[in-house]
Fold these 3 entries.
Entry 1:
Amino acid sequence: MKKHLLPFLLFFISLNVNAETDLVLKDPTNYLHYRIDLKSKVLSKEQRTGDWENLGKLQFVNIDLRDFKILTNQTFNERGNILISIEGTGQLFRVDLKRLTFSRIDSTYFRGHNFSSIKFIRKDTLFSLGGSGFWHVNNIETYYSYKLHEWELVHVPATEGPHQILKQFGGYDHIRDVVSVIESPPFYYKSVKDFTYDYFEKNLDTNEWKLLGEINAELLFKLGLKSLESEFLYGMYIFNSGPFVIIGNPVTNKIYSINKNITLISHLNELSERKGSLYSYYAENEFNKLPIKSDSISFKTLKSMGVLKGDFYLPKKMEMNWILLGGYILAAALLIYIFTNRKKQETNTIHLEGLPENSVDFLRRFLECERGHEFDSNQITEFMGYSTYSFETQRQLRSKLIKTTNSYFSIHYKMTDIIERKTAKDDKRFSVYSISEEHYDKLKDMLAT
């Protein structure tokens, strides 16, 4: 829990300090770095010797130096330029290396909810999954829209996928084009060894999550790991909290232990991958000099050093008596359905693919009021179960769920705009929502329990 609290402490402490002098950026194409002197506006590039080459003075565009009180960042290669994401915010900046400009490109306001999110670029689009903030880990999936200059929802948070996503427990496998996630423990969980670590993969072509099993945590802890936090590189989990480096390979579903000291894999080193190799970087500040210690090893060689220890993930545990009980319950439910619920066949189809799970409960609460009753945005958000999210996230989730629900009923039942959005009569700045009077009775019959 202390590791999770550290980003928040840094965030709040930083609100009362001045912006740092230098913004150091990882070169997204190799293991070296760029550096921006925020006072002189000079851009420098790190050399393998440890020296810095002056590339010239940057033109600052839409830059507020107060945004750089938190200097933890992640960088991405954007067609030869550097895209910068500031940790714990939705803020995005771009360094144009040819034109020598440094500019903010987003219009995000809210911050503090996405520390340690999984970020990656796929098909020229930057995605962000999960993250933590205010003692809560989420599973919100967004992408950055260059057109709107904002982060947009990929879809309503999936119920079939992990509920808690952090980059310490997963990442993007660009080779297989999937996202791998070990569901992380919540903040309040006391014993990391007792937690059930479910393993999920998301197919980005179909945009679907799949639960593959439970991580073999018992074996991993027996091998000496103190935590399942890791580095996710080249489609593999590299665990380094024990006496030896442990590799979890989701592709082969195997755990390997490297029973020798590998100095290039250390908590003090910055690890990255490039063209099938693992790169390790360490810089030591000594009298304004930065001697570099770097090393590399191919992932093929690294895997060959491992000793097979067991399966990486296991089928979900379930006692046989529970399986039998489940079968009896399913058979009984089927008989009840056949003999007593034939008239509700149309109603049951609302649970088919395409309609979010929470949409049904949301509509039923909506229909508890009389025809024509109007609700404000706060009431609608509470009905949807999104009231604990930030204001900006509430707005996106609310819009997404209403749009998805209206589209579903329009396609499957020819019921157009069952949820209507209108301008409030008493204050034109706000909106109110109601169930269409045309579809009110039919919808109420369909959702009758």
Entry 2:
Amino acid sequence: MSDPLILIPARMSATRLPGKPLADIHGEPMIVRVWRRAVAAGIGPVAVATDSTEILAVVEAAGGVAVMTSVDHPSGSDRIKEAADILDPNGLHDLIVNVQGDFPTLEPVAIAAAITPLADPAVQIATLVGLITDDEEKTAPSVVKMVGSPVAPGRLRTTMSASTPIAAARSTDSSACRSRRWRSARASSSCARSRTACASTP
């Protein structure tokens, strides 16, 4: 049985929209709405990984768990790695689910679906994707994309990917990867958790 830990990276210094996690969405900060949806997925504990005391405060005020991480992380994946080390120092959670903090309309069922492929021991990383039907979106650099080959109904093997709203990675006790950073659970070959696991798509 899997034991996922859901982590939501959030920082205040986003280039395109600084302070985005605290943007008001119908009377509630965006990051709180994302946190609520992750909790509603019902697959495991949820925490926000942030470098901001403001974000930490609004999450905790809503009844959530947040952890302070370094301001120097180059990516959300690095932030999640630090948060995982803080919240789960013994690596008891076998799956880490990365839910992006700027997707307040995300359906909880989609978060739960992201871990389904990991029931297959051969699958180390899973990313949720949807079919692009708008021709303009196919070439727009602002639209996240993944290219893959069908391996089963509703499943693709990734050959190329960019960042996506949800990614799940298996955590195993592999000492060969202890010194490697978790680069991104959204890439076709990546380290899932630097202290414990090296994972790549099959």
Entry 3:
Amino acid sequence: MFSVALKILLYDKTRSFFTLLGIVFAVSLIFSQLGIFLGLMQTSSVIIDNTRGDIWFCSKNSKNFDFSQPFPEYIYYQILSEPAIVDADRLIVAWGVIRQKLGGTEQVEIVGFDPDSGVGGPWGMLAGDTRKLKNGPFFIVDESAQKRLGAIEIGEYRDILSRRLQLVGISTGVKSFTTAPVVFTSFHLARQLVAYVGSGDSTVFVVAQVAPGADVTEVVSGLRARYPLVDVYSKAEYSMKTRLYWMIETGVGFSFLLTIGICFLIGMLIVGQTIYNSTQEHIKEYGTLKALGATNFEISRIILSQALLNALAGYAVCFLLTLLSQPVYAAIDMILVINWQMAIAVFMLTLVMCFGASFISVRKVKKIDPAILFRG
């Protein structure tokens, strides 16, 4: 059946080429939309995902990582006394402005952490050392900030929230979903910079490590009952909560879903029209096969084989083009995520698109009367 389907596709090479082109266009858009969406979701929780710790404590009813509010610091010391907790660190995340070299300001996201433990701080450094932050009014900025802040060099000074700070390091991999540059400082300096956090009695997060062998889910459940004034999440839960906020509350998820749906329909229409026209052109040949004893199932297999060949060829080209386009996305400061789960999902979607498009043609051949051979 594959050989017959292949001969039918190659019979009209021009039509088959434009069909393949349509599939490549539709599936490539699906690949890119999914990849960009996953990249955005990855950046939305990038600090949570790369911070060492099992449990996150945050203000009550906080919507996501970027907009949590401070809570009393005494809770941090209570958490340290918990038998199931072996270590905990405070973390401040707040918003501020940085003054540009040539005037004007730019909004930044300030992350204050303990330079000794490194919890909540940058996990990759292009230059400098995070431990230098504890020695004074210093900060680290991610390399992705250069498009917003201009050229940055170790040793230069910038004003952040009217405080003169010196750049002592450049991190990598900390691209923010909000596109605001991420600035790292020591916990104590961040608390001084951000007035609403308070002077010495507040924190925005506590990140805790559970004892070896302890069940994180059970520990979280117990802590929620004992700490009603804050929200308690496992690392995975808080990461997902943050991603869902940006996905649903901002409408980002719906816009990407709508685009993917449109691309799917376009691909289905292109493939469906091509296979249907091909079926119409070869209607007498299918009638001949029926007259010779071919069953509806066998004839349907020929059409479905055409759909499968289109799907395989189109997907192969799309996957290759998507892999080759990753450097292009990186050059324009966008993250295109490609993993095996997404690759399988797009492949299955391509199969559904092509098989679904052949449904009308399958119904058409089932209704063929072999007597069509004797009609004028």
